Amino acid sequence: MVRKSKEDAELTRKRIITAAREVFLSRGVSRTTLEHIATQANVTRGAIYWHFKNKTEIFHAIREQVLLPLIDRMDDSLTLDGNEDPLTQIEKSLCQTIDELNDNIEMRETYEIIMIKCEYVEDFSEVLQQILDNCSSILDKLVLGYQRAQAQNLLSCTLSPLALAQDTHLFFSGLLHMWVKDADGSRFRNQAKTLIQSHMNLRRKH
Amino acid sequence: MVRKSKEDAELTRKRIITAAREVFLSRGVSRTTLEHIATQANVTRGAIYWHFKNKTEIFHAIREQVLLPLIDRMDDSLTLDGNEDPLTQIEKSLCQTIDELNDNIEMRETYEIIMIKCEYVEDFSEVLQQILDNCSSILDKLVLGYQRAQAQNLLSCTLSPLALAQDTHLFFSGLLHMWVKDADGSRFRNQAKTLIQSHMNLRRKH
DNA sequence: ATATATACATACATTCTTGTTTGTATATAA
DNA sequence: TTATATACAAACAAGAATGTATGTATATAT
Question: Which of A111, A115, B159, B191 could form a disulfide with B163 if both were Cys (CB 3.0 to 4.6 A apart)?
Fold first, then answer.
């Protein structure tokens, strides 16, 4: 049998994406061949070429599958003003992302691939720009949070909301990178939340 | 003519390293072949195989050429207690690294390769451990600085020196990553020092 | 019921890479 | 001065990896 129903086809597509994520993770993006992915997915390269133009397109599919939902959640948790104070809100939002990394295998693997199993050249260099754009949008949300904190007189210092947001953003970028690299968890993964708490306490009045 | 003097041979070795750095930067480590490097260095693969076992060894040579001196300088500027106060000392040390990245082409290119043009799998996964070890040593130096700052009652908050050092370390890691990704300089490179200043001001009393 | 497009598998041709082997001119040591 | 090791260049062999072309069974539309 060859021809599958539409649902079956969509299923193979997803199998290919999952397989690619697994192989990318263990072999790195550049070193994995379409044959590797095909074997892992129990299909032939024919199937892959049917669903995707090339390896780069699979990479983008993996990214979208995980990143698009994440951005939405990040947006929500930083924009919605609940009944928490702004600083707690920021803290919870950061912690929530760490929780996601811990709980969501696909997200964790995707992050790991993006950060340390991929070379940003040629086709992939545009991803860098996307990452920077992404950062800008997160930064904007943080600025809003700190502005509200300032308005409510919650801040321990006179730094501008922008400066605080930039500092938090860089802190969190560093944390994510270290989180990924710290495979055994001893240095960063296990104490990520404590680090976030300290970071936020530094800007809390009193 | 084929056989060169020892000095000439050492010179070709360096030419190969420089060529490799340049090609790694533009094509990524995985996608560059030894032929690429040879062409760039105006030698044949024979010369490369004479001086290095394989591509991985060239990568390590590039890393050592830049990283070993850096670690020494970092050690010095954080360990030596000059006549500055500890917080200023930390700030200057961080700024100095940024200056180095701006001024030293080899260092800048090497950092870029290590951070976004290299996949940490197989032979390269051990580099991750080295990076983490490196971080530990920098963290230790920062802790010492903050301990002295605390002893001199310079700190604005009650956070432990360790917590402050971890926060600074993560901030600086994030900054370096963004510095590298921000090729056009608009978002991070041009204001790196301001960001460092803000970061340190956050912990200064007064 | 039949035609057609779909969802692949299989086979093929071509190009890249790598590692090794062989050759060789010449510094250098003895 | 001669022998030997050095510092490469050039040639060779073999295997990967890619993209495409072709084959084909079967959903699905008509």
Answer: B159
CA-to-CA separations, A49 to A6, A19, A39, in angstroms, rounded: 17, 15, 14
Q: Do A15 and A68 fall within a single domain?
A: no
Q: How far is the CA of B13 from the C1' of C22 (A)?
A: 23
Question: Strand D positions with any atom < 7 Å from protein CB?
Answer: 5-11, 16-28
Going by pLDDT thresholds of 50, 70 and 90, the confidence category of residue B113 is very high
Closest B-chain CA to A166: B195
Contact A156, B161 (CB under 8 A): no
Q: Measure the CA–CA gap between A90 and A88, rounded to whole angstroms.
A: 5
CB spacing of A157 vs B159 below 8 angstroms:
no
Q: Is residue A67 part of a domain?
A: yes
Same domain, A45 and A64: no
> Is the interface score ipTM higher than 0.85?
yes
Contacts of B175 in chain A (CB under 8 A): 170, 174
The domain that holds B112 is classified in CATH as 1.10.357.10
* Domain-embedded: residue B206: no
- Containing structural domain, residue B114: 59-201
pLDDT tens track for B7-58: 889 999 999 999 999 999 999 999 999 999 999 999 999 999 999 999 999 9
- Chain B nearest-CA distance from A150, in A, is 15
